[in-house]
Design goal:
Length: 256
């Protein structure tokens, strides 16, 4: 088994924690809004036997520092850039889930020469009409509505945006997705920049994904220049891991 080491680095915005293991092509894993780098634990165990894997806890998550800052996608991109610069990593493949996918796409748009490819799961930041996040922002001001709305959603089998882990368990994730001004969140979206995203993209989707996730994936596949879609057993939040890893292997081998 490839040894995995834990490390910390003081960045200009705060201390960042990450896990690292393996040799070869560098894969950087960016976790979702309601998680931290532990989300990728089993992926790291497998892929570190063939690749050099970096798995950070984003600033404000997990074991990384939680400074009192105004959190944004751009802030997380800057922290990632500073980490990769400190590690002298000039070419990487970014693998992101949820806001991790948003950060990966934003990083590739800003630093295209440093990104070989990106792999996206359940990507956030591609805003479609009537998307549920706009209505969900009401919960920031009226948290007492959460419980009855979840009950209604369960009865109606709708409102995917209410089925996330409790927002209070990930305050920075909540701020990034819902807790900022709508204008600021929309300004960081990448729907209108899909045509500029020139790096190869692998979209991993579940055969039972929600309608919202399918619509976002279809938009990316239609509007970005170089997209490959792989469908695995499961849903966006619970893909069949062996299938997903095999898809990543094929994708990276074809890039060589």
């Amino acid at each position: 088994m490839t040894p995995i080491r834990n490390a910390r680095l003081r960045l200009s915005q705060g201390q960042l924690f990450w896990r690292e293991g393996g040799r070869g092509q560098t894969l950087v894993f960016l976790h979702g809004a309601w998680s931290d780098g532990n989300q990728w634990r089993s992926w790291l165990s497998d892929l570190s036997s063939r690749y050099h894997c970096i798995v950070p806890d984003l600033l404000g998550f997990g074991e990384s520092e939680r400074p009192k800052l105004h959190y944004s996608i751009e802030l997380e991109v800057e922290c990632l850039a500073e980490l990769l610069e400190a590690l002298r990593l000039r070419q990487v493949c970014l693998i992101g889930d949820s806001i991790g996918a948003w950060i990966a796409a934003s990083y590739a748009l800003r630093f295209p020469e440093q990104v070989q490819a990106i792999v996206l799961l359940n990507p956030e930041g591609v805003f479609l009409e009537n998307q549920g996040w706009q209505m969900a922002r009401v919960l920031h001001r009226f948290p007492a509505l959460l419980k009855p709305l979840r009950l209604v959603a369960k009865l109606l089998r709708r409102a995917d945006w209410l089925n996330q882990q409790p927002f209070e368990q990930s305050p920075v994730g909540f701020k990034l997705l819902l807790g900022r001004r709508a204008r600021e969140i929309q300004a960081e979206g990448w729907r209108d920049r899909l045509a500029w995203l020139k790096v190869p993209i692998l979209l991993l989707q579940g055969e039972q994904d929600s309608a919202t996730v399918r619509a976002v994936n279809q938009t990316i596949a239609r509007e970005a220049p170089s997209v490959q879609v792989e469908t695995c057993v499961g849903t966006d939040s619970n893909l069949c891991e062996p299938e997903a890893i095999a898809a990543i292997d094929r994708f990276l081998q074809n890039l060589a």
